[in-house]
Structures
1.
Amino acid sequence: MTPVGHSLMGLAIGWIAVPAEFSRRAKIVTLGAFIALPNAPDWPLPGWGHDRYDISHSIFVTLGAIAVAMVLAFIALWRTRYFAWRLIVGGAIAWLSHLLLDTFYFGRRGIAMFWPVSEARVSLPMPWFTVMELKPLVSAHNARVFAIEAAFYGAILALVVAWRWRRDRSQIA
């Protein structure tokens, strides 16, 4: 999977979670965090990401990292006008979405998301999703992968934005 799909899905989850009363600037910062969170398992850090896929894509490691992030968010935002439980829960869902989305790709053996407890792999491939090639990075294949992800996850984002816009307008009236 590419950052395109993860980012669009995180943005859709963030669009649901962000409070309507937030200022434009607060919404932009919050949605930026919701773009970053579902990409966290792929961040190119030493001993993380594609360097140690078993660790960064483990449900146990992910839940531990989310717990730490939730505590830090709680401490940072508690007693501010920016604290909202739905942001914290939404952020956790956005981060966890990475693991689910990665299971959808053909060309993989699945992800060993239960490491270190089990080496079993989860794979729920959908035929229209294929894995991006790292070499060459710029290729017709990768352009197709990006386009399919943008269309599929972009459609989900568009539906969420339309739903949220309609919901917020009906609450004003």
Note: Residues 8 and 154 are 6 Å apart (CA to CA).
2.
Amino acid sequence: MECSVSKNKNNCTCTYTSCSKRGHCCECITYHRSNGELPGCLFSPEAEKTYDRSAANFIKTYKG
């Protein structure tokens, strides 16, 4: 499967627009996973803006 970077960028909800991995979803997931984090696209818009990509923040956000 070929990566469609321009299409991915159009659908990316991460607000860190200067990230070199933006639109390169495989690289983004690999990067965050290696740091024990989740990518910004899995968070709600409010939680994503905090840049706290921790699993604990993800769980806290969705537990309400």
Note: Helices lie at 5-11, 25-34, 45-48, 55-63.
